[in-house]
Amino acid sequence: MKKGKKLYEGKAKIIFATSDKNTVIQHFKDDATAFNNQKKANIDGKGILNNRISEHLLKSLSEIGIKNHLIKRLNMREQLVELVNIIPIEFVIRNIATGSLTKRLGIEEGTILDYPLIEYCLKDDKLGDPIISREHILNFKWLNLIELDLINEQCLRINDYLQGLFRGIGIKLVDFKVEFGKTKSNETIILADEISPDTCRLWDQETDKKLDKDRFRKDLGNIVEAYQEVARRLGILHEQSNIRPIKFSKPTAVKIKKSK
Ligand code: UDP
Question: Model-level pTM?
Fold first, then answer.
């Protein structure tokens, strides 16, 4: 697969053309941004970890029938993915209240939600990705009702599966953001972008220690170590002598709730 010209550069990723018009290369950078680009840094090794973690999660999701853009990982920083037209909406799924939800509505930090909450944000940096309602999505024809319901259903399935997967390795899936796109070939809606500690909030089950991008947002330090810890628990990062000892507690006995 020949790597072609750069098609798009985002905050954390670059998209390159390939010799096949229906596939592109997704390259993971080490750049991190927060607060609508106001805070920026380069975090050595983050892109490599996100590439591996996202590959693992998207592969697992495709095994349970969640169609997504991943074709295969090409190297340490790149994946071959299906080219899609990204739907300009960020789908945020929450299990525990934190971040913008607590600020916006005054909900107490750490409140466990009775059932998963889906929120929609318009993907528009200039407007600061404003939160929007279902009615906005339908009124402005960003999606039709069938498409929106299909994506909602997928969001809940993804949440259900990932919550279980992370619970099994001693991590709470607090919230996460996903994006969907329409394939060029037949306009099918599939999961796209990435799922990684950049786009999820992941708290250690026992200590609530943050293992995600909040370490960058809140200047908590040890960002790469936290991402490595997620990768290690997922079983995709082998122990290496050059990795500093981890300061986070190891998962102990895992409590698995009985499904209702
Ligand atoms: N999120 C993301 N990209 C964004 C905004 C949010 O990946 O542009 C993720 C974020 O990492 C978290 C979830 O979506 O897992 C909910 O984020 P929230 O709205 O609380 O964002 P905050 O304003 O606190 O960053």
Answer: 0.91
